[in-house]
Amino acid sequence: MSSEGYQYRALYDYKKEREEDIDLHVGDILLVSKAALVALGYGEGMELRPEGIGWLSGFNETTQEKGDFPGTYVEFIGKKWISPPTPKPRPLRPLPLAPSTFRAETDSDSEQGSCLPDLTEQFSLPETCPPMLAKLLEAIEAKGLDNPTLYRTFTAGGGLEVRQYIENDAPSTELDQFELPVLCDGLRRYLQDLPLPAIPPALYPQMIHTAKEVVNPEECAQLLRHIASTPSLPPQYWLTIHCLIRHFSKVCQNCTKNLLSARALGEIFSPVFFRQQSTSCEPSLEAHIKIIEVLVTSEMSENQAAP
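Structure for Phosphoinositide-3-kinase, regulatory subunit 1 (alpha), as requested:
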């Protein structure tokens, strides 16, 4: 008897650390049963974000091995009917960062050559948004925020071609040549390749605590804005966050057509706003999603209240 399953592609080589793990090589195709994810408490849609799931248990079709592998090392490529394994509960285990996320903490930047300048180097006051990001958001919004494929599809290039284009200071109008899914991947790529995420890790504890403890959404949003705009950090970080939140607010205003709610955007973008820390055993995924959801919802309310 077969059941629904999911296919993933290895993006990086991984050398197993425990007996129950399996090795990964770039390009390996892996299968994970839907039943296994449901048994671990993950709902519909989470299969698209393996980095948010953590450790997955599955079958490597390339090497014919069964075992665990880190979600940070693979990408979702589609569904497939498979013979399901028996899911088993596992204790919490720290998840390794994908190799690309080590760039800000190592000296290998020059070798990889793919790390963007820090936000403080991309723009300065009185500018209110990084020029590269502004061009990208303008191109996405010009393509149509009511498109039902918005932020829902992934492309083979992973947005790399868009990033290379805007890095070469191409005019915004020339981004029109790219299809909407490629531009959306370009935004994810831009946020992923920042040396420090738009929400710096130093803010994670306060923001997560606020999201968990403050029940009133508007009060929570005000406190989160206060934390994110702290004078102890360069203003470029909060300005970039606010630029993105305004864009997400525009996306949600078209939710009847694109079917993207503030929560859905939180689920999609929380992995690039909150990068998993190697010292953390519990990634607080729900709090990460809520932070984005609350900020976007508050921005929408303010826009609707404005004369």
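The CA atoms of residues 27 and 165 lie 26 Å apart.
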